[in-house]
Amino acid sequence: MDAQFFLVLIASFSVLLYFLIRLGETHQHRINYEFLKFAQAEERISWRMRIYYLSEFLFMFLIVTEHFYLGSKFERIHTVIGLSFLLIGVSLRFWAITTLGKLWSKRCMFIQGNYVVKEGPFKYLSHPEYLSRFLDIVGMCVMFKAFYSLGIYIVCISYLLYGIIKVESSQMKRLAIDDNSSGITHS
């Protein structure tokens, strides 16, 4: 077995695992979304959130297409670096999703009277899930040597995340003000 075959196998397995993880997240989102609707959460910027999560799948297609169109070969160093980014991204996202529990979804939901989560990765980062998804795509782009796709991704995702984070940050400020005025503290 030559090294190229082994690297193709690793890359193929990574893409398959990536999509299986996304399917699991989508299933969890559906469960949590029903709970959040039941809890009378208000959905904000739904179109932007849908485009954001759909863009993951579109960019995976673009990454693989660029790799094969340019006739790139897999290289050990790119595979190792790409897998490292991917593993860090998946781990960070798993930590963020489990920390949020039923409050996590693929939508921007606001529950009046809730509190700002400051545990797990949220103790260190305001938006760890978005960082984790960015690391995933960077990892795949490096692994597949799809650097044109990476440039396009950075431009597109920056535009989407600017609007999403702006809305979510205002929601967190609003919740923090409510917490401070009621004397509630959360750690």
Short précis:
The protein has helices at residues 3-38, 46-69, 76-100, 128-144, 147-182, and strands at 42-44, 108-110.
Descriptive overview:
The protein has 5 helices and 2 strands; from the N terminus they run H-E-H-H-E-H-H. By secondary structure, the chain is mostly helical. It has a two-stranded antiparallel sheet. Helix 2 (46-69) runs antiparallel to helix 5, helix 3 (76-100) runs antiparallel to helix 4 and helix 4 runs antiparallel to helix 5 (147-182). 25% of the residues are buried.
Present the secondary structure layout.
Layout: H1 3-38, E1 42-44, H2 46-69, H3 76-100, E2 108-110, H4 128-144, H5 147-182
Antiparallel strand pairs: 1-2
Helix pairs in contact: 2-4, 2-5, 3-4, 4-5
List keywords for this structure.
mainly alpha, 187 residues, disordered C terminus, single chain, 5 helices, two-stranded antiparallel sheet, 3% strand, Four Helix Bundle (Hemerythrin (Met), subunit A)
Low-confidence stretches: 181-187
How many domains make up the 3D coordinates?
Answer: 1
CATH architect. name: Up-down Bundle
Strand content: under 5%
Radius of gyration, in Å, reads 18 Å
What strand line-up does the widest sheet have?
1-2
Helices, by number, come to 5
How confident overall, as mean pLDDT?
90
Order of helices and strands: HEHHEHH
Query: What structural class should be given to the helix and strand makeup?
Result: mainly alpha
Annotation, overall tally of beta strands? 2
The first-level CATH class is given as Mainly Alpha
Which fold name corresponds to the CATH topology? Answer: Four Helix Bundle (Hemerythrin (Met), subunit A)
Proportion in helices: over 70%
